[in-house]
Amino acid sequence: MWEAISAIAFPLPSNPLLVLFPAIAASAQFSTGLNEAQGTNFNYSKFFDSSKTPLALKIPSRVGMVALYSPAALTAAAAAFNSDGTVMILSSMLALHFVKRVLESLFLHRYSGIMAADTLATILFHYLSSTALIIYTQWLTVEEAAPSVDLKPAGIFLFSIGIFGNLYHHCLLCNLRREGDKQYKIPHGGLFGLVTCPHYLFEILIFVGIACASQTACAFCVMMGTIFYLMGRSWATRKWYISKFPNYPRQTKALFPFIF
C-alpha cells in the first residue's frame, strides 16, 4: 500500500504541523458536511435565517462573497508571479479558480440575500489558509525527487473540466432569475436533470485536479475536505428543493449522478 502511495505522492513534510493542520481541517470539513446534511447549515444563500442574526452581523451577499474569495485569489496570484515549475502551475490553478469566483460574484451571480459575518470569517480563513498551505508545502518539495507517476497532466485536464463545467452551471443558475427577482426556481439544463448541484460536482473536479497536480498530502486533504463539505451541502440543497417544490423530481440525486 505504501509503495502505491509513494508512487503518486511526495513524502510527508518533516514539520508535523504541516501534516496535522490539513488533516484536522479535512476532519472539520467532514463534520461540517454532516452538519449541513442534518440541517445545521452555514448562514449564507437560501439557508440563512436573517431573523436570528443581529443587524450588525449581516453583510450583503455580493460583498461577502467577494471578500471571502479575494484573499485566497491574491495569495495564489502573488505566488504564481514569483515562482516557477510545479509551484507556478499549482499557484496559477488556484489563482484561476479564486479569481473566477471573484469575477462571478461581481458580474455574474444575482444575489438577493445577506450573509452572516461569522460565516464570512470562517470560510475566508479556510480558503486563505488552505491556499497558502498547498502552495507552501508544494514549495517544500522543490528539491525532492518527484513521484514516479506524474499526475500533473491528469490534474490539469480534470481542473479544466471542473472550471468550465462549474462556470457553465453557474450561468444556468444565473439565467433562472432576473435582476431583483428573489423567488427561487427549479434549475434546469446541463446536468441539473441528474443532480441537484452539478456546480458542486465540477468544483470537486477542480480540487481533484489541484490535488493531482500537486501530489502532496496537504492538497489531497483539502480535496477530501471539499468533497465532504459539498456532499453535505448538496444533500441539504436537495432536501430544501423537495420541501419547497412539490413537483421537484425525486429521482434527481444530490451530487453524483445515479449514486448520491
What percent of residues are in strands?
A: under 5%
The count of β-strands is 2
Radius of gyration, in Å, reads 19 Å
What class would the helix/strand composition place it in? mainly alpha
| Mean of residue pLDDT values | 90
Low confidence ranges: none
In DSSP terms (H or I, runs of 4 or more residues), the helix count works out at 8
The percent range for helix content is: 55-70%
Q: What shape does the CA trace take? A: globular
Q: Measure the end-to-end span.
A: 28 Å
Largest sheet: 2 strands, antiparallel
* Topology pattern, helix = H, strand = E: HHEHHEHHHH
| Neighbour order of strands in the largest sheet | 1-2
Set down the secondary structure blueprint.
Layout: H1 2-8, H2 17-38, E1 58-60, H3 61-81, H4 85-107, E2 114-116, H5 117-140, H6 152-174, H7 198-214, H8 217-244
Antiparallel strand pairs: 1-2
Précis, in short:
The protein has helices spanning 2-8, 17-38, 61-81, 85-107, 117-140, 152-174, 198-214, 217-244, and strands at residues 58-60, 114-116.
